[in-house]
Amino acid sequence: MKIDIEAIREALRKFNRRAGVLKSDPYGIGLSLSQSSALVDIGRFGKLKPNDLARLLRLNKFSVSRMVDVLHENKLINVSDDPADGRSKFLALTAGGKKAVVTINEVANRSVTDVLNYLDLKDQRALAIAFESLGVAVDIADRASSSQPEQIA
Predict the structure, then answer these.
(1) Could you say which architecture CATH assigns to the domain 5-117?
(2) Which residue from 9, 54, 55, 118 puts its CA 20 to 30 A from 138's CA?
């Protein structure tokens, strides 16, 4: 049986549109999707170095540097020196950043729940399993691509 990749992509596009992630401020807190994702990841890990955040978000260091500046200016993150390496910094959420992450998670959870409620429990479980599998596949692909030597053009 051939997998209909286009059908999967179309379903993801429909969901993204419905969830509002294409908006400039998808969570209603004055942040872009990438800025919101950065806050969630910083919160998930407690503290992160900018280079680690860039790897997680799959963004270049310059983009993450600008993002960190915006989040810091908006008092959503603290930037502190790494005691082991004075050239390196740590990023951590402020109280305002933690509050923003709560809002992001509430809006995101509501977006998923609002759509899932139209499916019966069996289909909800099947979808959850499919997305868990997709997450595993992404992790495997990331490990495989990071173990490949970087190609020089």
Answers:
(1) Orthogonal Bundle (1.10)
(2) 118
